[in-house]
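Record Metallophosphoesterase, 273 aa.
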Amino acid sequence: MVLAVGELARELRCFHVTRYRIISQKLSNLKKPKKIIFLSDLHNYCYGKENEPLFRAVVREKPDLILVGGDMLLRKDHSSYEHTVKFLSRLPAVCPVYYANGNHEQKMKERPRKYKRSFWDYKRQLEKAGIRFLENESVTLLWDENRIRITGLEIPLLGYERWTRNRISKADIEARIGEAGEAYEILMAHHPAHIPAYHDWGADLILSGHYHGGVMRIPFIGGVVAPDFTLFPNYSGGCYEIGDGTAVVSKGLGVHSVPIRLFNPAEIVVMEF
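=>
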């Protein structure tokens, strides 16, 4: 019991870097390696003074891109996101940064009567720092001669409800962001329950979060419980082959609904191409 309590306390104070090698025929002629950092689910958590250890870890990686997968703040009333804004605002000095909303940002955006201008003030500060939000929008980049399209899919709040979460289809996605193209398609979509639909849409690389690694992880089984209290959720955290594509689900950087981690350290995700 003492060991378990000690491990719980340690994992709430620490994060580590998880590395994945991403291979795709569409990127087979890259002239030099590329690196993307994926950050998700910080939930206003602060590592050290103003997240300095987190920032230093990002800088050490020398990434080509930073993608932010949502839920970096909390939707609670009177919750301060000052530390989160300060941390994120430093990232554009490292490399280009693109941000897709999670359910916390989405709830603040969809319910202004309750949350006032909190989301819009948060977004304005980050945009002023140089971060680009992708809200059912895409940006196309060139890696050598390879076209890379990064899209942020906004999932409405109903798409996070337990009884409707499997109802998002390829047609729903196309209605929001159009059809997939010939470029290497990176889709940031916060909820991993819809990964089969994201793949059907045509994503080559799916980036999700939301499940916090399943809170506790059991070897050879995976995460135990999702934030909506679904037991043993699929795609709780890790790198998955989906047909001819890949899905990477971050275990997150913070905690929320179930404020513990066990055998499930917080992580910065580094993808090397």
